[in-house]
Specification:
13 helices
């Protein structure tokens, strides 16, 4: 244990993993409650084009991916709210287009760089101070958002029409949530990668659902399971020399299985 904390790259990985897991679990709890899991996957994969654009322009790929993913998320929301297009159908439009765009643009990157694999599958052990700062900044923004709009999020999630009657600005809250979802997804890329990222959003909240009694306990348990997944996955990946991102998602999946089994045997 002492050896792990003595290694700078492990300290950086744990800090980034902690911040990302909190933000992703908070966002993910409402992604699951709103049945928007496919949107999370769609935005995550759309960021691939943004990453490639960053390589082309010679800027930090997370910045370009953040801009591209945010525009994609807001576009999905705009189409679903203003046209006769379901959210999943809108994702079905942007998901393949953004991946196709990324593949096309990748052909223009001079001297194919293996760094792209780190964005696809995650490489939290290589995060630096910039990624850690972005992770904690994102976590802070997400926490502030839920402190300010938790009631509005709960009402609009389960009864949008009544929310409007109560004076809640449903559209504003919805677009803010999509924007923060996009930012959180992009910042999480270095931890678990584009391919596996939807698992970080969806699996901890599903585990939390096994024990939650109300929305507050559900959100808190989602964060707890998210932290256990990230920290446990990082320790396990270090001890067994396994890919960090894949191990984090695997630990999260095992926690979900254990939660379901515990609920069935103990709390039935």
């Amino acid at each position: 244990m002492a050896e792990i904390f003595s290694l700078p790259f492990m300290r950086n990985a744990l800090l980034a993993g902690l911040a990302v897991s909190v933000a992703a679990a908070l966002i993910g709890s409402f992604v699951v409650a709103r049945r928007m899991a496919f949107i999370g996957a769609g935005i995550a994969h759309s960021s691939f084009a943004g990453v490639v654009i960053g390589f082309l322009l010679g800027i930090n790929p997370l910045i370009s991916a953040g801009i591209f993913a945010s525009l994609t998320g807001l576009s999905i929301g705009f189409l679903s709210r203003n046209y006769k297009i379901e959210e999943e159908s809108a994702v079905g439009v942007f998901f393949p287009f953004s991946m196709a765009l990324g593949i096309i643009l990748l052909g223009f990157v001079k001297g194919f760089t293996p760094d792209i694999m780190g964005y696809l599958f995650g490489d939290v052990l290589l995060v630096g101070k910039t990624e850690i700062l972005l992770s904690f900044l994102t976590m802070g923004l997400v926490i502030v958002f839920f402190l300010m709009f938790f009631r509005e999020m709960v009402y609009s999630t389960f009864d949008e029409e009544t929310s409007r009657v109560l004076g809640i600005k449903v559209a504003l809250v919805y677009y803010l949530f999509l924007f923060l979802s996009s930012v959180t997804i992009v910042v999480s890329i270095k931890v678990v990668g584009i391919i596996l990222l939807s698992g970080l959003l969806v699996i901890p909240p599903l585990a939390a659902l096994q024990f939650a009694k109300n929305m507050k306990s559900y959100v808190i348990l989602s964060v707890l399971f998210g932290i256990l997944s990230s920290v446990g996955g990082l320790f396990l990946s270090y001890w067994l020399n396994l890919p960090s991102g894949a191990t984090i998602i695997s630990v999260s999946f095992l926690l979900l299985l254990a939660s379901g089994l515990t609920r069935k045997l103990v709390f039935r």
